[in-house]
Amino acid sequence: MFSRLLALFIIVPLLELYFFATIGKIIGFPVTLLIIIVTAVIGASLTKREGLSVLSRMRAASSQGRLPHAEVTEGALILIAGALLLTPGFLTDIFGFSLLFPPTRALYSKKLGNYLKGKIKIVPGVTGSPPRNSPHSNSKHVDSSDMPKQSKEGEVVDVEVL
User: Fold this and answer.
1) 3-state secondary structure the chain
2) Tens digits of residue pLDDT in 10-45
């Protein structure tokens, strides 16, 4: 993974420099610089619009009682798009705009979801707290089998962690 990131951080800037020089030679340096500035401004505006749209859908999903996992993924992709669009370069702009365009963002989101499904292991019945034999555990294990399955509204349950 480290070698891939290292290659990415070396190859992409070199390609961007090549395209700067080539396009600058064809259309001139001032126009090339203007294109970079205009794409950054347009990209920032589109990023804000798409981000607010996803944030609105995230709030709606939460208010409906469902997990906004798709919206969170889209929000992360929009954040990456914004960073790419503010980075000067033609390749980063192309990739950034493709992340902002909803149909291609949906494809990226689906691919990312499939990739993460292979990387994340869900273990049923395990909470986020450390195991009781863990050196990070300061409390004793609480057996939830003798806890009531549902409490009545207004009922106060006093819990003490030992």
Assistant:
1) CHHHHHHHHHHHHHHHHHHHHHHHHHHCHHHHHHHHHHHHHHHHHHHHHHHHHHHHHHHHHHHCCCCCHHHHHHHHHHHHHHHHHHCCCHHHHHHHHHHHCHHHHHHHHHHHHHHHHHHCCCCCCCCCCCCCCCCCCCCCCCCHHHCCCCCCCCCCCCCCCC
2) 999 999 999 999 999 999 999 999 999 999 999 999
